[in-house]
Specification:
Blueprint lengths: L15 E6 L5 E6 L2 E7 L5 E8 L5 E6 L5 E6 L5 E6 L4 E7 L6 E4 L3 E5 L3 E6 L5 E6 L10 E2 L7 E5 L5 E7 L4 E9 L3 E6 L5 E6 L4 E6 L5 E6 L8 E6 L5 E6 L4 E5 L4 H13 L2
Antiparallel strand pairs: 1-2, 2-3, 3-4, 5-6, 6-7, 7-8, 9-10, 10-11, 11-12, 13-14, 14-15, 15-16, 17-18, 18-19, 19-20, 21-22, 22-23
């Protein structure tokens, strides 16, 4: 999460510009005014610092790590149009790219590196970092909102299909073609997230009262949850549990909601009958 425009912070943490988990939530990356740090998550009680880079590159507003590997991608406030890819253990720069506009977000999986600008998305091949496709003239996306599934086979990319309503465009980054467009909400999107397998997509709009879950690539609505009715909220992030049975949502109201993705009763009966036939 980019905290540069995230509002006021306490004096203890006002040097933190960016915080994000890696793809399997085993590592935490923190961008600060003096550099960046990487932590290993061994337990809920303690973070173990595994690497720290101070003063070499300052004001890190984006730092993304590829799983638990040594590959990281960073962007600084001083050079917001420049993406640097490093092997942090060796201390070497693998490559760097300069773009026509500010880099708003970066997403990684084992096949692709995705760079999101306000009106364009570049897709890189992770093996050689070459740009293999560019999605041009996307609707204005000033927050760089996008999500990349971590599944090796599917590797779907989701991004807003409209700046006026909550449409989600699903793009196949392996075969480099659009898959489907999901009309998720009446108002613009504020958060989107895939589950681990890339078979479900969670969405929230700027109103922040309703959170929906859709099947991918079919685009069928599977679940709908109400976070609130009277009071709107800005949803900062959505995240599935590894088994996709739970979905969490954080907001500007300093609350975290956790929803259970229950199987509908009719479908449960069908699955029980199917299971019974195997006995």
């Amino acid at each position: 999460m980019n905290l540069v425009n995230g509002g006021s912070m306490s004096n203890e943490s006002n040097d933190i510009l960016f915080v994000n988990f890696n793809q399997d939530c085993t590592s935490l990356a923190v961008g600060t005014k003096t550099g960046y740090r990487l932590y290993t998550i061994n337990s809920l009680e303690k973070l173990q610092e595994t690497f720290s880079c101070e003063r070499e590159i300052e004001d890190i507003c984006i730092v993304e790590r590829l799983f638990s590997s040594s590959l990281i991608a960073i962007v600084s406030i001083a050079n917001p149009r420049k993406l640097r890819v490093y092997h942090f253990k060796k201390g070497t720069e693998i490559c760097n790219y300069c773009y026509s506009n500010t880099v708003l977000s970066v997403r990684l999986n084992r096949n692709r590196l995705v760079v999101c600008l306000e009106e364009r998305i570049d897709i890189h091949n992770i093996s050689d970092m070459k740009v293999i496709h560019t999605i041009r003239d996307i609707p204005s996306n000033p927050k760089g909102l996008c999500a990349l599934s971590v599944d090796n086979e599917k590797s779907y990319l989701a991004y807003p299909g409209s700046s006026q309503v909550g449409e989600v465009q699903i793009f196949d980054t392996i075969n480099l073609r659009p898959i489907t467009m999901i009309p998720a909400h009446d108002s613009p999107l504020s958060a989107i997230a895939f589950d681990w397998h890339g078979s479900k997509l969670a969405t929230a709009s700027e109103k922040g009262t309703v959170i929906r879950v859709f099947s991918v690539p079919q685009g069928k609505r599977l679940f709908e949850f109400r976070r609130g009715i009277k009071r709107n909220a800005t949803i900062y992030s959505l995240s599935f549990s590894p088994d996709a049975l739970f979905l969490s949502a954080s907001s500007n109201l300093e609350t975290i909601h956790i929803f259970r993705l229950d199987i509908p009763r009719e479908r449960w009966k069908d699955e029980f009958i199917l299971f019974k036939n195997f006995l």
